[in-house]
Amino acid sequence: MSLSELIAGVESHEQTLTVYNAGEDVGDELRAQFADRNIRVETERTESGRPGEFVTLSDDGEVVTATSLAAFRDELGTESAARAVGDSPYRPILDHLDETMFTSWSIDRLVAASREIEDRAWRVGSGALHAGFQTTSTLEGELDLYERLGETDVDVHAYAYPDTDPPAHEGFTLHLERASEIEDSWFVVFDGGGDDEQKSALLAEEREPRAFYGFWTYDPSTVDYILTHLESTYGFVEQ
Fold first, then answer.
1. What is the DSSP letter of 238?
2. Any long-range contacts for 60-68 (C-beta under 8 Å, 24+ apart)?
3. Which of 141, 186, 135 is nearest to 164 (CA)?
4. What number is the average pLDDT over the span 214-232?
5. pLDDT of residue 97
6. What is the CATH number of the domain that holds 64?
């Protein structure tokens, strides 16, 4: 399965967020908040109006988790493009939204998500970080950061389509690949440095000029799949 096929699999899987016993304005607010995510938002009322305002998340018609509306809003208040593990004590909904598709993200949002994963690798200080820059010309702007990461005990790998001469670099392994999925994909994947709770990945593809579609994940098995695909497909490297 290619990176694009993995994204398509996430895209075809829609979840439903149902808000109970709250006004339609709350539903409209959440629809706007999740407008760039593959989530359907519905509003319902229980017959008795109890147990107050709450939210459920359903997957294939089955409720997978629930929380109070107030706690869910606390969750949203701590969410970033890619949140750090342990940031919020109220995470029953967001824990299940990691692999939800985002649509038409801007460069700024992707950079913010990438920085969180890079920072996580920096803080752990071991393991392996794999990052796809699309092209060597894009990589040139990130050389300082990735050379500094390479000075740690993190095994750093960069992937790029050679649209320019490869930049001089040190401290990380450069994979020069004339593959369409490398040219079209933006990814940052951290193997957790031996800790499954630290595994994280961002994976997106450029379907329109500078508009990216993809997902982020903290699921160890998905992170492992992406790493296995990269390592098995792009084993030849230029040091």
1. B
2. 64/96, 65/92, 65/93, 65/95, 65/96, 66/92, 67/92, 67/93
3. 135
4. 92
5. 67
6. 3.40.30
Residue 149 lies in a domain: yes
177: domain CATH number? 3.30.870.10
The alpha-helical segments, DSSP class H, found in 79-219 are 107-124, 136-140, 143-150, 180-184
pLDDT category of residue 40 using cuts at 50, 70 and 90: confident
For residue 85, the model assigns a pLDDT of: 34
SS3 state of residue 55: strand
Q: Tokens 């208040």 — which residue? A: 77
Measured distance CA(155)–CA(189) in Å, rounded: 12
The mean of the pLDDT values for the chain is 85
Tokens coding 197: 């709770």
Other Cβ atoms less than 10 A from the Cβ of 62: the count is 6
Range of the domain at 59: 13-96
Which tokens go with 222? Answer: 């998905």
Indicate whether 115 and 220 sit together in one domain: yes
Compute the average pLDDT of residues 181-200.
95
